[in-house]
Design goal:
- It is a single chain.
- By secondary structure, the protein is mainly alpha-helical.
- The protein has two domains: 103 residues, no CATH class; 112 residues.
- It is 66% helix and 3% strand.
- It has a three-stranded antiparallel sheet, with no helix packed on it.
- Helix 1 runs parallel beside helix 3.
- The protein starts with 16 loop residues before the first strand and ends in a 6-residue tail after the last helix.
Length: 271
């Protein structure tokens, strides 16, 4: 390796200095030292081996060193993004499929900021056609967040719809009872019936409200409840349609990314 080549520290981005006697590179800014072997042309191989077994921290370090010696290496940029995504291979994009909660799991334990920053670095330093690969990953991050947000709102709309439906059913049942009591009162024929109806009426009107007022109040509340249910139902269908649209968007981006992955890296994805 040429000693004139500028190498940067993975910790602070400072320029490394070669210590020939100790056969290592030192950072004069943060004091970190790196073995010469990291820059001997095998860093990328070591990075990909570490990535394949899920040693993301080690892999990330090796990929960083690979970029120090070859700042146009698309495999190294992709490797750093994969480390941030916790992907061993492109096949781990299948982790984006929905789990039992209906949410995509791609970035549940990953900071989207880190993924986006690494994609931006790649887009800045690579040719435009290669940058498109990383742009798709960025769009995938956004699509994932939007989809998960829509799923959460969708669940809330289901709860609200069910609650309003239960209230409509409860008020309907109460109104039926009141109306039945009113019909019985209108057809009363003897003293015994008067006594029985009086007890029924008391159970409905313990607050002194007349049966007629009870019916009117319940009808008013039922009208409001039905309006609330209709609104909740519209919100549910609107939310559901949005989820479907975002899911289609997500899967479209996913397919585009897999296509470019095959083109740039000659890797087939397990669909």
């Amino acid at each position: 390796m040429s000693e004139e080549k500028k190498l940067t520290c993975a910790t602070c981005a400072g320029t490394l200095i070669l210590d020939k006697e100790r056969n290592l590179y030192k950072c004069p800014f943060c004091g970190v030292a790196y073995g010469y072997a990291l820059f001997d042309g095998t860093a990328l191989d070591k990075a990909e081996k570490a990535l394949a077994i899920g040693e993301y921290n080690d892999a990330d370090l090796y990929f960083s060193f690979a970029l120090s010696s070859d700042p146009k290496n698309i495999r190294a940029y992709r490797g750093r993004v994969f480390c941030a995504c916790k992907w061993k291979t492109i096949n781990d994009i299948n982790k984006t499929r929905k789990d039992v909660s209906g949410r995509y799991r791609l970035f549940s334990s990953v900071r989207a900021e880190t993924v986006n920053q690494r994609c931006d670095d790649a887009i800045k330093n690579l040719p435009a056609e290669q940058g498109e690969y990383f742009q798709l990953i960025k769009e995938l991050v956004v699509a994932t967040d939007k989809y998960n947000e829509a799923v959460l709102k969708g669940k809330k709309s289901i709860i609200k719809r069910d609650e309003t439906a239960d209230r409509v059913a409860m008020l309907n049942a109460g109104l039926d009872d009141y109306r039945q009591a009113e019909r019985l009162r209108q057809t009363q024929n003897n003293d015994l019936t008067d006594i029985l109806l009086g007890k029924v009426f008391d159970s409905f009107s313990g607050d002194g409200t007349s049966l007629h007022e009870k019916i009117q109040n319940t009808e008013d509340m039922l009208s409001i409840a039905r309006d609330s249910f209709a609104k909740a139902n519209r919100e549910y269908y609107s939310s559901n349609n949005k989820i479907v649209d975002l899911s289609n968007k997500f899967n479209s981006l996913r397919q585009q990314l897999l296509k470019l992955n095959k083109e740039f890296f000659q890797e087939e994805a397990e669909l």
